[in-house]
Design goal:
Elements lengths: L2 H33 L1 H5 L3 H10 L25 H8 L3 H32 L6 E3 L5 E3 L4 H4 L2 H16 L2 H14 L4 H25 L4 H11 L9 E2 L6 H8 L6 H24 L5
Antiparallel strand pairs: 1-2, 1-3
Helix pairs in contact: 1-3, 1-4, 1-9, 1-12, 3-12, 4-5, 7-9, 8-9, 9-11
Length: about 280
Amino acid sequence: MTIAEALVLFLRANLVASVAIAVVLLLRKPVRRAFGAHIAYGLWPIALFAVAGALMPLLQEPNYYETGLLAGLPQTRDTGPAVAWLQAQGRDRIVLAAWLIGVAVSGVWAAISLARFMRAERAGRAGPAVVGVVVPRLVAPADAAERFTPEEWRLVRAHERAHMDRQDARGAAVAVLAQWLCWFNPLVHMALLAVRLDQELACDATVLERLPVQRRRYAETLLRTQLDHGPTYGIAWRGCGALETRLAMLATRQPPLDRLDLGEIAVNGLWIAAFVGGIAAQALV
């Protein structure tokens, strides 16, 4: 595969991802109201499945679309004109260099943020937050005992423990990686902010499922500690913003089990539709 062909494929994946992200941004709030925070957070893999479908040419065999589940779907459209335009006068190398510069700048910015957080951690001013992708760990400020009452600290730890149990650090890492690679795509940046909020809402819901009698105290703790200031990194107790949305969700009861089952079925169907749609989009993009 030439540089120009790879760039065209990458552009196709971004266009498909943009459509999928726009769909999720439209659906997440009504889905959250109808089915709860867990189902709404489960919408985000739609974008990943759509991109996977758009990248299927990487695995394409001559008769790939002639048999099996993909029979009858349109094959990859000839991208000759786009490839030819990029190859003319070395445009493909110019575009590649510009993209790599953007990725490098994103990486440097992330490294600066991480270094700032690590300095704050050594000084005892960082957290509460979960950091680490391979081995997640809880970072707490040195004055946690003074900042929180024992009951509040128990709830904060329950929140961060829920993040660890749900593997949220890895999901956040995937979103950040997508932001680095697609730094030029504004919808990807919007998606990262929305993913973080939906992740926090789902985590809040998990805590309340485990500690249902602590709903009021949990909301009071969240309200009071959101006014604190300090460096944040990773998945932070107060780092996602949208306090009003989180408090409103804390006042909402869990949907009945039959509705949750219906929501899970619908989301799984959307994942499959996104994957097939990504394949079908090859004929249009």
